[in-house]
């Protein structure tokens, strides 16, 4: 067989040639294999050969496991009578557009159908965990890194799948519970498992630790942490708190503390922390002790686990966001777009010989997931989608996203501690030298002494490494005690703001409500006997309940608990709502009441005594329902109450405006009536003056006519006296007199017609004024 390359992988010393293990490549078959000297193969364990092979290969190729989960139709989609356009058959997911004959099919490692619980192929929380997360747990105990991240549009069921709700636990709590059960099992095989945890979020491209709070009271926002990159371990968060946990109860306590920190920040300064990527990280360190030839051998493996709940992608048009929410959505979409670029580049890298540039550092999210995407990790991706036709575009986008992720190849390797590897190598060296010692008869004495000296040196190094491991074991115990102390300190920091961790079933209390179900009922405020003051969180404040927010007054309200009767008294100019109604007077609280302080802090009032006595004093249509009032219920109640109040204010303003308008119209009518009366008097006076002038003119004309007639008569009489008129002259005179009388009569009739027209015009104008006054207008 022709060999074109030979590389020795064994650890040979200058004094012996005990082990001959070689990596060879056959040029004729292009296959790699290991060849071990047959004489000493029995003395070399198969596990060592496996580790040697992994050391040569640098790890095993591992494709990203991709699963799809289809959630049920939500209430909004049911009201819209949305049509289901997604179907699942085995590993295949198919989308049927409603207005097209074309269909889109995608094949994944797992396709979970969670739309109908009555369906035979329904995938429950347990099914999803067993199929997707449990294999990662097994890999963790084999020494591999593991990562699982959930991706999907807003409201597609990511947080429900990762964290669960109430008794229906999700992947993270199930994983944490079983990792301790598994640790108890391997403990029987002389394997000790130490677990550390961290919990942080990425909000608006800033990273915040959820397991520690800023001790400086003058800070209104948490300090943003920075990411650094280790040449071997990859990216890590500088200054991130990591606490040792010894049981699942410890993890639950830390998770509760982290979610309380997250819920507290969600209402302060409009800092909606629920719109963020949350990362739950664990480090599992396994230490196995074995005894060989009376000496102890320790084998250590360290696995990093990242469980990531990504914030939902959304379209600003469909989500109708603005202001801070629009900025949050843009930041989320930008980080998810960078994640898409990374996935696309890694997908192309598996299909081409050239190594493309991977833009990990374009976003904090992708930088954190660098080892999980294309690095040293066993990775699984869960994509959640909606089956409704109204979300068709987002569903297709998510499925294409997941299809690309499926082609990513990671190079996962067992993460052995360097000290463990050195100890194993030293053990192998000692074994080789001992074997050489046993068959050293007839050899050179100088070479024999050199071997003995090397054995003593290796034993000394071995003792030093054993001492370091013992110190590490002691350090772990100290870290566990320190973690417990830190947990108590963080709990005390929250308790300074009256956030309680234990419920007293005898005392009334307020629990927070949040739009993110994972953050609801995280904060508990006990209402003790006597008076409890509520106000703004300030340095050295003595208020029983301290809140943050722009609309929280320095002294917001007073809650009095006297013999089981709880009364809330709001301060002046402090917005306080009870069951959606704005209150300004003292009001008695009853079990189930919704209390909203400053529009940002939503609470539900619980009164255990009333529950035990079977009393519900929250009367009215909204309180008759025996159901758990959540954030949406309280918010809709507030919106409805504000809507009714605004409608009442609008109606009151309309009636007041109408009344003012009627008053103005009456004033204008009175003014117009006075003006009309004055004008009528003026017109009547003018008409009377005109009549007097016409009468004077008529009398003057009559006098002139009389005078003229008299003159003519005298003249005619004079002529008659001088000459006796003929019959013809008398007839002409009578005719002239008759004509004159007719002309006089025509003049009288003309004057009478003019007087009638003037009178008619006056009456018409009066009728027009009266009609205009009745219509409310002034001519």
UniProtKB/TrEMBL annotation:
**Keywords linked to the UniProt accession:** ATP-binding, Coiled coil, Cytoplasm, Cytoskeleton, Microtubule, Motor protein, Nucleotide-binding, Nucleus, Phosphoprotein
Residues annotated as coiled-coil are 624-707
Where in this chain does the record put each Kinesin motor domain?
63-408
Q: Where is this region: Disordered?
A: 755-779
Q: Give the record's GO biological process terms.
A: microtubule-based movement; negative regulation of apoptotic process
> What is the first-listed, main subcellular location in coarse terms?
cytoplasm
Matching entries from SMART domains are given as: KISc
Pfam families this protein is in? FHA, Kinesin, Kinesin_assoc
GO cellular component terms, A-Z: microtubule; midbody; nucleus; spindle
Ligand binding (ATP):
152-159
Q: Which InterPro entries match?
A: FHA_dom, Kinesin_assoc, Kinesin_motor_CS, Kinesin_motor_dom, Kinesin_motor_dom_sf, P-loop_NTPase, SMAD_FHA_dom_sf
Q: What residues does the FHA domain cover?
A: 532-583
Compartments annotated for it: namely: Cytoplasm, Cytoskeleton, Spindle; Midbody; Nucleus
Give this protein's Gene Ontology molecular function annotations. Answer: ATP binding; microtubule binding; microtubule motor activity
What does the annotation say about its assembly with partners? Directly interacts with PRC1 within a complex also containing KIF4A, KIF20A and KIF23; targets to the central spindle. Directly interacts with CIT depending on the activation state of the kinase (stronger interaction with the kinase-dead form); targets to the midbody. Interacts with ARRB2; the interaction is detected in the nucleus upon OR1D2 stimulation. Interacts with AKT1; the interaction is detected in the plasma membrane upon INS stimulation and promotes AKT1 phosphorylation. Interacts with SVIL; at midbody during cytokinesis.
- Indicate the family of this protein: Belongs to the TRAFAC class myosin-kinesin ATPase superfamily. Kinesin family.
Q: What is this protein called?
A: Kinesin-like protein
Which organism was this protein described from? Acipenser oxyrinchus oxyrinchus
State the encoding gene.
Kif14
């Amino acid at each position: 067989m022709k060999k074109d390359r030979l590389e020795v992988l064994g650890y040979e010393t200058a004094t012996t040639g005990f082990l001959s293990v070689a990596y060879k490549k056959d040029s004729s078959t292009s296959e790699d294999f290991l060849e071990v000297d047959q004489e000493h193969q029995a003395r070399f364990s198969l596990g060592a050969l496996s580790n040697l092979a992994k050391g040569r290969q640098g790890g095993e190729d591992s494709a990203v496991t991709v699963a799809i989960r289809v959630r049920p139709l939500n209430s909004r989609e049911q009201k819209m009578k949305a049509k289901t356009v997604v179907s699942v058959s085995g590993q295949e997911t198919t989308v049927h557009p409603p207005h097209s004959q074309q269909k889109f099919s995608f094949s994944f490692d797992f396709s979970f159908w969670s739309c109908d619980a009555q369906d035979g192929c329904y995938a429950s929380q347990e099914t999803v965990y067993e199929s997707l997360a449990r294999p990662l747990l097994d890999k963790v105990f084999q020494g591999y890194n593991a990562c699982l991240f959930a991706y999907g549009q807003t409201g597609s069921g990511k947080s429900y799948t990762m964290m669960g709700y109430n008794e229906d636990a999700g992947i993270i709590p199930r994983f944490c519970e079983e990792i301790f059960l598994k640790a108890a099992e391997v403990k029987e095989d002389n394997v000790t498992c130490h677990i550390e945890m961290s919990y942080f979020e990425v909000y608006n491209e800033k990273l915040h630790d959820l397991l520690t709070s800023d001790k400086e009271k003058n800070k209104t926002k948490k300090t943003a942490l920075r990411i650094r990159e280790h040449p071997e371990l990859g990216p890590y968060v500088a200054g991130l708190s990591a606490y040792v946990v010894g049981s699942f109860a410890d993890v639950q306590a830390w998770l509760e503390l982290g979610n309380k920190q997250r819920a507290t920040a969600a209402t302060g300064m409009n800092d909606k922390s629920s719109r963020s990527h949350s990362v739950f990280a664990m480090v599992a360190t396994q230490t196995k002790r074995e005894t060989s030839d009376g000496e102890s051998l320790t084998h250590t493996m360290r696995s990093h686990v990242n469980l990531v709940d990504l914030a939902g992608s959304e379209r600003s048009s469909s989500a109708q966001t603005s202001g801070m929410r629009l900025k949050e959505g843009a930041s989320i979409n930008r980080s998810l777009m960078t994640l898409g670029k990374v996935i696309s580049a890694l997908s192309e890298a598996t299909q081409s010989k050239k190594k493309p540039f991977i833009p990990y550092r374009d976003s904090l999210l992708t930088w954190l997931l660098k080892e999980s995407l294309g690095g040293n990790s066993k990775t699984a991706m869960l994509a959640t989608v909606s089956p409704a036709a109204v979300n068709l575009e987002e569903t297709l986008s998510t499925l294409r996203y997941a299809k690309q992720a499926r082609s990513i190849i990671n190079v996962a390797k067992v993460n052995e501690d360097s000290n463990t590897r050195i100890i194993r190598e030293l053990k192998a060296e000692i074994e080789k030298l001992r074997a050489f010692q046993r068959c050293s008869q007839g050899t050179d004495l100088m070479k024999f002494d050199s071997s003995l000296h090397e054995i003593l040196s290796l034993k000394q190094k071995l003792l030093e490494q054993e001492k370091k491991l013992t110190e590490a074991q002691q350090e772990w115990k100290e870290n566990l005690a320190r973690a417990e102390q830190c947990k108590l300190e963080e709990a005390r920091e929250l308790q300074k703001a009256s956030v309680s961790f234990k419920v007293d079933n005898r005392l009334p209390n307020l629990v927070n409500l949040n739009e993110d179900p994972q953050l609801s009922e995280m904060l508990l405020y006990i209402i003790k006997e006597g008076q409890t003051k509520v106000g703004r969180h300030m340095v050295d404040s003595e208020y029983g309940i301290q809140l943050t927010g722009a609309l929280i007054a320095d002294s917001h309200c007073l809650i009095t608990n006297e013999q089981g009767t709880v009364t809330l008294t709001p301060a002046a100019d402090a917005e306080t709502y009870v069951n959606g109604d704005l209150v300004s007077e003292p009001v008695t609280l009853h079990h189930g009441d919704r209390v909203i302080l400053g529009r940002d802090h939503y609470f539900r009032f619980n009164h255990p005594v009333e529950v035990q006595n079977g009393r519900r004093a929250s009367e009215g249509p909204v309180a008759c329902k025996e159901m758990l009032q959540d954030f949406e219920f309280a918010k809709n109640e507030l919106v409805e109450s504000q809507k009714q109040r605004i409608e009442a204010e609008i109606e009151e303003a309309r009636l007041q405006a109408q009344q003012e308008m009627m008053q103005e119209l009456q004033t204008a009518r009175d003014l117009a009536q006075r003006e009309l009366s004055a004008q009528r008097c003026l017109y009547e006076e003018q008409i009377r003056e005109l009549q007097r002038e016409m009468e004077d003119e008529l009398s003057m004309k009559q006098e002139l006519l009389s005078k003229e007639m008299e003159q003519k008569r005298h003249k005619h009489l004079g002529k008659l006296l001088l000459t006796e008129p003929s019959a013809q002259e008398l007839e002409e005179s009578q005719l002239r007199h008759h004509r004159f009388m007719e002309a006089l009569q025509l003049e009288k009739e003309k004057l009478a017609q003019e007087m009638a027209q003037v009178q008619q015009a006056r009456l018409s104008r009066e009728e027009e004024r009266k009609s205009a006054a009745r219509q409310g207008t002034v001519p």
